[in-house]
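hiii so um. not sure if this is the right channel but i have a protein structure encoded as tokens and i wanna go backwards to a sequence. like what aa goes where. can anyone help
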């Protein structure tokens, strides 16, 4: 496995692969890899001649009061996991390497960023759009793999790729969960034992919500309320948002409309804080599935 720390090294290695006409699969991450990342890495390795992983904790996507300074890191373990997943090249740039100067250019995706994390974390998706477009230019992948754990990120990146004519195929990948349902996240290590037990309420309410969604007459607003009530039963849970939106446009449907009437997928997205740790999770509610049961 090749490890590149500079853009120059990366370009050199990739151009030799390009000359051999090898298709490149790319997985951008912030490291501290877990099984959720590993599933993307294995998929990229299986579907492409060359698979590239980037590990970069991107300061641009963290707000001033967010957890940039305490974001967990373990390069040695990440490299071992990447190699075990069949990754060919890892790009691990420093902040100085990625941003030798403060960038004056930013990639801003409108509308799909109006709600959810776009609203709760102002500037977050500008940082994501900017770094992902830099990485796409550096790696020139044929396919790029993103987890549906960050469903809004998938929608934002797909919109950016469409709008700016990046010639990369975006491959969304399913959410990987702990046996009890908690979505894997690098931030789960910050949960104390009690918070870890309570955090299961996220996946449990999403599951419950997909059943409630089948009830005739169930409306958007009612379902959001039921899910909020369910989550609030966990003593330490502090809700940031619970929203049922159209996917991938992430526009709000009429709050009083019946879920069964929708002919397009909806997403139920949650962000909940346990102490200082903010967790997100979501579930796509296929309306065809809903209709089947009504
Ligand atoms: P991050 O390192 O948090 O920026 O995540 C890098 C990529 O891994 C993103 O595309 C995430 O959506 C994806 N990812 C993170 N956690 C999971 C998970 N539990 N299941 C699937 N993909 C995930």
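sure thing!! here u go:
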């Amino acid at each position: 496995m090749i490890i590149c720390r500079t853009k120059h090294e990366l370009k050199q290695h990739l151009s030799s692969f390009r000359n051999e006409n090898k298709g490149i699969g790319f997985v951008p991450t912030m490291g501290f890899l877990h099984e959720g990342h590993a599933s993307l890495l294995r998929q990229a390795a299986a579907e492409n001649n060359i698979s590239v992983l980037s590990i970069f904790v991107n300061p641009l996507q963290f707000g001033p009061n967010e957890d940039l300074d305490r974001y967990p890191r373990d390069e040695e373990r990440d490299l071992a996991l990447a190699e075990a997943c069949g990754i060919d090249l890892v790009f691990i740039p420093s902040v100085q390497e990625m941003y030798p100067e403060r960038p004056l250019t930013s990639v801003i995706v409108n509308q799909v960023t109006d709600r959810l994390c776009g609203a709760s974390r102002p500037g977050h998706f500008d940082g994501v759009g900017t770094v992902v477009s830099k990485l796409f230019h550096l790696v020139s992948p044929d396919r790029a793999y993103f987890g549906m754990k960050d469903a809004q990120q998938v929608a934002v990146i797909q919109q950016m790729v469409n709008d700016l004519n990046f010639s990369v195929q975006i491959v969304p990948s399913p959410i990987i969960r702990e046996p009890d349902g908690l979505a894997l996240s690098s931030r789960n290590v910050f949960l104390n034992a009690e918070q870890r037990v309570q955090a299961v309420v996220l996946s449990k309410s999403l599951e419950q919500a997909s059943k409630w969604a089948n009830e005739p007459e169930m409306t958007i607003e009612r379902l959001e309320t039921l899910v909020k009530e369910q989550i609030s039963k966990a003593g330490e849970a502090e809700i940031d948002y619970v929203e049922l939106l159209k996917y991938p446009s992430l526009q709000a449907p009429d709050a009083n409309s019946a879920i069964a009437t929708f002919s397009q997928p909806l997403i139920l997205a949650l962000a909940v804080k346990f102490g200082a740790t903010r967790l997100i999770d979501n579930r796509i509610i296929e309306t065809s599935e809903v209709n089947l049961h009504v």
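oh and The two ends are 52 Å apart (CA to CA).
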